[in-house]
Amino acid sequence: MTILEVLQSAAGYMKKHGVESPRLNAEHLLAHTLDKRRLDLYLEFDRVLSEEERAPLRELVKRRIAGEPLQHLLGEWDFYGRSFALDSRALIPRPETEQLVSRMLEVLPAEAALRVADVGTGSGAIALSLACERPAWAVTACDISADALALAKTNAGKLGVEGKVCWHHGDLLPEEGVWDAIAANLPYIPSEEISTLSKEVQRDPVLALDGGADGLEIIRRLITDAPKKLEKGGFLFLEFGQGQSDAIREILAVAGFGGITILEDHQGIPRIAQAQNQLL
Q1: pTM attached to this predicted model
Q2: In whole angstroms, how far apart are CA 199 and each of 17, 19, 70, 170, 194?
């Protein structure tokens, strides 16, 4: 079978089993097994693959239709123009989170020596992207999961910023320290909805998904604690779930935040909150 025929066969099989974007999945998986770029496949459509070359793809396709995320099978994924190692220790970063990073880079002064914390860093997607994009900033990456922090540290080494990030293993923010900006993509799925999520999403750590009864328990705790951890006028940036924007706005206002702005994602869904600390 040629590369084109193998792609068509794998995509058809995954489509039959309900995998979204089956052709894209097939291309990623075949490029991975052949150690090539996806573009290279298009340049070699007519090349015949041996049985030895096709065998690894079959195994990956079986795992994919069983619900294993594409990103876990590949072992890496791009976020904000950089490749991050990914596995089951942390949430797979999504495009919405790239918008949060973009907003921070747009709003905060680039050359100032800002102190920035990323709460619930997971794979380190937010913290490490900021450290790469803004060398002048002092970035702290926080997570309650030691496994997630280990993955984030691996990515810091991969991106060459391991010496530019401080690490905190614990619940939300460290007891000591004040920041100019805090970012967080914390769990926001209501507990009772976890079992209804797709097979792929359920491969993410429950700790990174479960936001309690209303989905906002952990976010609420961070917002309540954040004014003591932010300089006056300091910024808080949050990612949250669909249908939660009104509640987020109210929690921020009660906690003493002003300048509350809710931003929509690329699908027009309110997804990111930006607010400033008004408390002394």
Answers
A1: 0.91
A2: 12, 10, 12, 29, 10
